[in-house]
Specification:
The structure holds two protein chains of two kinds. By secondary structure, chain A is α/β, with parallel strands linked by helices. Chain A is 26% helix and 30% strand. Chain A has three domains: 148 residues, START domain (Alpha-D-Glucose-1,6-Bisphosphate, Chain A, domain 4); 132 residues, Medium-chain alcohol dehydrogenases, catalytic domain (Quinone Oxidoreductase, Chain A, domain 1); 121 residues, NAD(P)-binding Rossmann-like Domain (Rossmann fold, 3-Layer(aba) Sandwich), CATH 3.40.50. In chain A, the strands form four sheets. A seven-stranded antiparallel β-sheet of chain A has the order 1-7-6-5-4-3-2. In chain A, strands 10, 11, 12, 13, 14, 21 and 22 form a seven-stranded mixed β-sheet that branches. A six-stranded parallel β-sheet of chain A has the order 17-16-15-18-19-20, with helices on both faces. The termini of chain A are far apart. Chain B is of the alpha+beta class. Chain B has one domain: Alpha-D-Glucose-1,6-Bisphosphate, Chain A, domain 4 (2-Layer Sandwich), CATH 3.30.530.
Chain lengths: 492, 146
C-alpha cells in the first residue's frame, strides 16, 4: 500500500526568504541536521530541472534524488528518489510554500507518497515524518533565526552575534539649544531578551526630540554629566541579530521602529521587538524614517481621535510640517473641509498641493477670524503650536469642537481651566502617539494603514530634508527656525 | 482578470473553524460586514447550486451561488450573481488547510473577477482588506488568536 505523509508549519519569515533557501536543491547540508553533505551530480546547476543531488546522511545512509518540478510562481518543488540505501520505494515528495498575507509569514507544506517493504511501514513513516520533515521545519527556523541564509554561501565565518559592537551616537550632555548636541563613540551590547539589534540607516527627526533636548520632558530624557541622554524616537535599518524569545523577526530583515524611550540618534541600537515593523519592499529606509511616526500620528488622529469624515471642518496648524502635510492630504481624502495655518507663502503653496483648501498665512498666530469666516468654526483643531495659539484656538472652534493639543512648538501650554471649555461645550485632548501603538499588533496595523495610504495616494510621497547624523544640531536648528517644509531625517 | 488573495493563520483546528464557516447561510454569524442572509427557494444551505441572498451592513444586497463545497478539502467556492460592486465573472474560494504542528490552520480566501480598470485598486483593497481580512480578523477574535 502506498504511504502518504503530510506535514506543515508556519515560519515567521516572508515567503521570499524561505523560498530562497528551499528552492536551492543543493542547500540541505547547510540547514538540515540529518544531511551531512550534498552535491549536484555532473556539475549541473541546482535549479536545473532534472538535476540529481547526492546526499550523505549523518546516519551513514546515502540518497540520490532528482528534481522533477521547480516553480518560482507557485513556490513549489517536487523531487523523487532515484537510488537510496534506505528502502523508500517510488518516493515522490513536494515542498510548497504559501504566503500568510496577514503578518507576512509563510505556510510550508511538505508531503510525499512512497511504498515500503512489508512490515517496515511504521518505521519508515516515522523516519520521513519526524526525522526529515518535522526536524527540517525546526532546523530551517533556527537557520533563519541565526541569519544563516544571509551569509556568503559555504563560508565558515559567522555573524558577530553576542559581541559588543561599535556605534556612533549624538547625545544631549546638558539641556539647551541645538548646539549642545554632540557626536561621540559608544558600544552596543548583544540584544537582550525580546530585543533586536538594528543597524540604522535613517532616523526620523520630530519636534519631541527638540522638547527633550530643551529639557521640557526630563523624566523621559534624564541627563547627567556622566550619563548624557540620546534623543530620537524612530529609525529604519536592518536587523543585525535577535535576542531570545523574539518571534517574527530575523537578522537581515529590513525594519523600522517607533518607541516611547528615546535613543534613536545613533548608528546601531537595541530595541524591544514590540516596537518593530518589517518594511515592505516598496517603502525605502528614508521614507520609513520620515513617515512612520508622522504617518501613524495622522492615522490615529483622523481615524480614532477626531473621527474625521465627509464634511468635518478640520484646522491644522503647521500645515506644511511633517505631520501637517500627512494630515491635510489624508483628511481631504476622507472628505473633510481642511483649513491650515502656515508661516510663509511658500508653505501655503505646498499645503494647498496637499489638499489644504483654506490656507491662512500668519506669523503672529492670528487665525480665528479667518477660520470663522471660511467655515463657521472648526470641528477639530490639530495644534502643535501650544501656548501662543491658546486663545485663538478657543475662538476658532465651532460649537462642540475638539481641540487636540499635539505639541507646543510655541511654548509649553499653561494649565487650561475646565471653564475655558464650557462656553461652546468643547473637548480637549492631549494624546501621545505611543499609547496608540502600545502592542506590536497595533503598530503593525497602523504602519500598514500608512503604507497603504502612501500607495493609493491618500498620503503623498514626502519631500525629505536629509542631514548627516553627525550634523543633528543643524537639523534641529532648521526645524526650530520654522523654515522647513515636510519631514527631516538624519542619515547614519 | 483581477485576482485578490489573502491568507491568515487561525489558532484553532481546521475542523473547528470549518464548522463555523461551512454553512453557506451563516455569514452573519461570523462575518462582521454581513447583516443578514437567507437561502432562496428554501433549499438546504449545503446543496451545491443553492443561492444565498444577503445584505451587507451598509445596505447593499448581494446574491451568490454555491459552486463547490468540500468537507474533505475544507473549501467552498461561490460566484456572485448580483451585487452593487460593479464586478463581473466573480468567483471566490475560501479554503482551510490544517497546520500539522499545533492546533491551528492556514486560511486562504481568493477571488477572480473583471471590473473597469480604474476601479481595480479600490475593489482589490475593499475585497482583500475589508471582506477577506475582515473575516479572518473576526475568526481570530472568536477563536482567541493572536
Amino acid at each position: 500500500m502506498l504511504q502518504k505523509i503530510v506535514r506543515s508549519t508556519i515560519i515567521d519569515a516572508p515567503i521570499e526568504r524561505v523560498w530562497a533557501v528551499l528552492r536551492d536543491f543543493n542547500s540541505h547540508d547547510q540547514w538540515h541536521d540529518a544531511v551531512e553533505t550534498s552535491r549536484i551530480e555532473g556539475g549541473e546547476r541546482s535549479d536545473q530541472v532534472g538535476c540529481v543531488r547526492s546526499f550523505t546522511l549523518r546516519d551513514g545512509n546515502r540518497i540520490r534524488e532528482q528534481l522533477l518540478t521547480l516553480s518560482d510562481t507557485e513556490h513549489k518543488s517536487t523531487y523523487c528518489i532515484v537510488e537510496a540505501t534506505v528502502p523508500l520505494q517510488r518516493y515522490v515528495a513536494t515542498v510548497a510554500l504559501k504566503p500568510v498575507t496577514d503578518g507576512n509569514r509563510t505556510f510550508w507544506h511538505w508531503e510525499s507518497t512512497f511504498a515500503t517493504p512489508p512490515g517496515r511501514e511504521r518505521e519508515l513513516r516515522e523516519m520521513v515524518a519526524h526525522d526529515v520533515y518535522e526536524t527540517g521545519f525546526e532546523n530551517l527556523r533556527a537557520h533563519l533565526r541565526a541569519g544563516g541564509d544571509q551569509r556568503a554561501p559555504r563560508s565558515a565565518s559567522s555573524m558577530p552575534t553576542g559581541l559588543l559592537m561599535p556605534t556612533r551616537r549624538v547625545v544631549v550632555p546638558r539641556y539647551g539649544d541645538a548646539d549642545v548636541l554632540t557626536a561621540e563613540d559608544g558600544r552596543v551590547a548583544a540584544p537582550g531578551d525580546g530585543e533586536v539589534r538594528i543597524q540604522q540607516r535613517a532616523i526620523g527627526v520630530n519636534f519631541i526630540d527638540i522638547y527633550l533636548r530643551r529639557g521640557w520632558m526630563p523624566s523621559m530624557l534624564p541627563v547627567a554629566p556622566d550619563a548624557p541622554g540620546v534623543p530620537g524616537m524612530e529609525a529604519a535599518g536592518t536587523i543585525v541579530d535577535v535576542g531570545r524569545h523574539v518571534n517574527g523577526l530575523l537578522p537581515g530583515d529590513r525594519v523600522a521602529y517607533l518607541g516611547p524611550v528615546p535613543g534613536a540618534y545613533c548608528t546601531l541600537r537595541n530595541v524591544p521587538a514590540d516596537w518593530v515593523v518589517r518594511l515592505p519592499a516598496e517603502v525605502s529606509d528614508d521614507v520609513a524614517a520620515a513617515l512612520l511616526l508622522k504617518g501613524v500620528t495622522a492615522d490615529y488622529l483622523l481615524h480614532d481621535l477626531a473621527r474625521i469624515g465627509p464634511g468635518s471642518r478640520l484646522l491644522v496648524h503647521a500645515a506644511a510640517g511633517g505631520v501637517g502635510l500627512n494630515v491635510c492630504s489624508w483628511a481631504r481624502r476622507l472628505g473633510a473641509v481642511v483649513l491650515g495655518t502656515v508661516s510663509s507663502d511658500e508653505k501655503a503653496r505646498v499645503a494647498r498641493e496637499h489638499g489644504c483648501e483654506h490656507v491662512i498665512v500668519t506669523r503672529d498666530y492670528r487665525f480665528a477670524d479667518a477660520v470663522q469666516r471660511a467655515c463657521g468654526g472648526a470641528d477639530v483643531v490639530i495644534d502643535g503650536l501650544g501656548d501662543v495659539a491658546r486663545d485663538e484656538n478657543l475662538a476658532a472652534l465651532a460649537r462642540r469642537g475638539h481641540w487636540i493639543s499635539l505639541g507646543q512648538a510655541g511654548g509649553p501650554l499653561a494649565p487650561l481651566p475646565p471653564d475655558a471649555l464650557i462656553a461652546k461645550s468643547l473637548s480637549f485632548s492631549r494624546p501621545v502617539v505611543f499609547d496608540y501603538v502600545a502592542s506590536r499588533a497595533q503598530l503593525a496595523e497602523r504602519a500598514q494603514h500608512v503604507w497603504r495610504a502612501l500607495a493609493d495616494g491618500a498620503v503623498k510621497p514626502p519631500t525629505i530634508e536629509r542631514h548627516p547624523l553627525e550634523r543633528a544640531m543643524h537639523a534641529h536648528a532648521r526645524l526650530e527656525s520654522r523654515g522647513t517644509i515636510g519631514p527631516l531625517i538624519l542619515l547614519a | 482578470m483581477v485576482q485578490v488573495y489573502a491568507s491568515s493563520v487561525i489558532d484553532a483546528s481546521a475542523d473547528n473553524v470549518w464548522s463555523r464557516i461551512r454553512d453557506f447561510n451563516a455569514m452573519p454569524m461570523w462575518h462582521p460586514l454581513i447583516a443578514d442572509s437567507r437561502i432562496e427557494n428554501s433549499q438546504p444551505s449545503d446543496r451545491v447550486g443553492c443561492i444565498r441572498q444577503f445584505h451587507v451592513r451598509d445596505g447593499g444586497t448581494i446574491r451568490e451561488r454555491l459552486l463547490a463545497l468540500s468537507d474533505y478539502e475544507y473549501s467552498c467556492t461561490y460566484e456572485i450573481l448580483e451585487s452593487p460592486m460593479g464586478v463581473t465573472n466573480y468567483t471566490a474560494t475560501l479554503k482551510l488547510t490544517p497546520v500539522t504542528d499545533g492546533a491551528r490552520c492556514f486560511a486562504e480566501w481568493s477571488a477572480e473577477f473583471e471590473c473597469a480598470p480604474e476601479r481595480e485598486r479600490e475593489l482589490t483593497e475593499s475585497i482583500g482588506s475589508g471582506v477577506f481580512q475582515g473575516g479572518f480578523d473576526a475568526l481570530k477574535r472568536h477563536f482567541g488568536g493572536r
